[in-house]
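TEACHING EXERCISE
Course module: macromolecular assemblies
Task: Read the component lines below, then compare them to the predicted structure of the full complex.
Student: A.B.
Group: 4
Components provided:
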Amino acid sequence: MASKPLNGAQVIIECLKREGIDTVFGYPGGNVIPIFDAILDSDIKLVLSRHEQGATHAADGYARVTGKTGVVLVTSGPGATNTLTGIYTAYMDSIPLVILTGQTVTGSLGADAFQECDTSGMSFASVKHSYLVKNTNDLPRIIKEAFYIAHSGRQGPVLIDIPKDVSTAPCTAPFVDNATLPGYKIPGKAEQEYIEQAAATIKKSKKPLILAGHGAAISGAGRAVKELAEKLGAPVSSTLLGLGVFPASHELSLGMTGMHGTVAANKAIHECDLLISIGSRFDDRITAKLSEFAKQCEVVHIDIDPAEYGKVITPRHFLCGDAKIVLEQLLPLTEKLDSSEWLKTVFAWKKKYPLHYPKQGGLRVQHVVQTLHEVTNGKAIVIADVGQHQMWTAQFFKCDYPGQFLTSGGAGTMGFGLPAAIGVAFGNKTGFPVCAILGDGGFQMTLCELATAQVNKLPIKIFVMDNHFLGMVRQWQDIFYDKRYSGVLMENNPDFVKLAKAYGMEAFCVSRNADVKRTIEKAMEYNDGPVLIHCECEQEDNVFPMIPPGASIDDILTERPKAVLEKPTGGT
Amino acid sequence: MFPAHAISILVSNKPGALVRIALVFSRRGYNIDSLVVSPTIDDSISRMNIVARGNPETLAQIIQQLEKLVDVIQAKDHTRQNVVEKELALLKICCKRDERTELLQLCDHFKAITIDMTESSMIIQVTGNSEKIEAMLSICKKFEIVEFVRSGKIIMMRGENKT
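Instructor-supplied answer key:
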């Protein structure tokens, strides 16, 4: 007698196993029960979050630290809508995710059935691709395609909406080994002709600058970037998500560029004669005033996404391909440049305009971050939420290792930090401790995930930088809106130590600069699950340097201006 | 007013493809004037002819973003290229007996044909490029037009080159 065919749910789990998936982040509901049932019979670890947004950010953090595709499993309707912020966050930062959502039975689609919504339709604006599965026998093909799309080319999230009758019906289709997608092209190598043209331009430069972006990190191009910088004699600046690609402690490193980047990195980008961008998409946070950006230099733009060509700027050379492969093509054609005068200038800026912060007053986030770097000897994975503390972490936690700094860059999603750190803790094989740096605002958006961290005894050091303000917005209102604070005061914050303890978690509080080191050491030594460190910080500190949005590099602020500035002309 | 662009797309016959394509235009401020979706000789692939208006500087980005869609096999801008372009329009006109001769003369001039006729009405079918259809419509405005519908533009490269 032939064996009974697997049902749709069992086939989904088998497909996940075939994709090498060992961890799934999810939250159940009526329409996804069959898949939750099937997962019980596998050795895939199911991580139950406390909210679907948390599950999605956790899968995102897991994907960032492992380089694998993160998998989310949630139910229909509100379960699916709750993942949207997480999907958009992953989309903006090119993170590979596969999101499996339950759906009402196919016969009820479009009939406003209980917990029905047009999930795939809703996803269109923020996924790389999406599917609504109408037939159980399509499952093996669709799942194969979804993982292939998510993890190839410019990576991104792919959503699969699975009606309940599809997951319960028997599947007679065979498993699929390869995806066949006639319209889907993956750039790998750049055209040799373009490489040679770019190399010829590079040879002429006397004032070169490399900009390392997230694409360089994703493709694992760290070593190639370093080789290129040293070979050319070119300084390296970094985008927010490119931090760590090139070691911050390297002589040629100028640190982060852009709105809250270093003066040296920003001056260099506006005075270089050659800009080699490796996997950056010229976000408005990087370019400042676009009409003045990179006007004086030749641009070599390396990107895996052909649609990035001319999207923001039109470079002299566009090399479409995987950053690491393209650099390996380019390296043999490059030689040392006559850049010694330029390096002298750049190093002088670096010396003249170091990052600094006031030492007087209350506890400073910058000091906490610096001390964390000191105590861990820089060997930690740091996940920042979004806001002032994020920028201070980017500035003061000097990253020497690719992939050690994670944050929501493109989307700027508050609430990302804690759940992402949970995903990182599940996937972390580096041996580095996992440290989440959160603000009191962002933390409270997803703090229900404290339970997920505690129940799994995850070794996460959770720093809550509490200034009782939504600090970044307050800073703008301070500088551009005549200190008219509107909707930024975090009144009645709970006692975060008591809150953590209510979850059964160890917690410490620190409010004086002098106690920071001892407290961090204590937290790092603690080895029985997560620990929360409540940092009572200076309330009205501002992040500098700052280039006001829409302004140019010449308008960079290194301290609080005495007069109220014009309201910014740029976007956010 | 922004100029019209004629775009031809080959797309896998998959659910949602049309919405994804429409979103690429709307997100970048483009208005779609006309849209024709039709099968090709390969059952799994459809052809879309889109005429859309918007900032010409954004057009290259729109083509690149269309090409990026997983289901899109090819997207090309054929504006001001050597292409054959055709539209078909139907005009339903209420006409009295004494107006009929003039209308039929007009049809003759525009190589239009009548495809329905009653005592008091006729339906005229006119084909050609957009300007010709506009011209026919404009002249017919002196009559009582009951309904007007046009197919949208279809385009094909002249010569051996593929569209």
